[in-house]
Backbone:
């Protein structure tokens, strides 16, 4: 006749307890890894947004410069054959 094995001495129970303990130990580690990854993503996203905003500003400045340049060319062509008088200034 075999003697009954106490509950916590069974192999399955020990394996389950080990897996549960390892899971509890892994949660803070995985959380920290996730937090650091999110920090990197947020930083990269901020850098991309800053670059995009800078590009938009440069495009608007270029548009303004092109518009002013076109106006100056138009005026130069219009005034090319005319004499400037004191009243024109």
Residues:
């Amino acid at each position: 006749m075999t003697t009954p094995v106490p509950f916590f001495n069974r192999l399955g129970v020990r394996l389950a307890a080990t897996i549960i303990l390892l899971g509890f130990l892994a949660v803070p580690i995985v959380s920290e890894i996730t937090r650091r990854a999110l920090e990197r993503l947020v930083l990269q996203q901020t850098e991309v947004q800053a670059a995009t905003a800078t590009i938009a500003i440069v495009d608007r400045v270029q548009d303004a410069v092109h518009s002013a340049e076109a106006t100056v060319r138009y005026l130069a062509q219009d005034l090319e054959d005319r004499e400037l008088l004191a009243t024109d200034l």
The CA atoms of residues 9 and 56 lie 69 Å apart. Residues 9-79 form one domain.
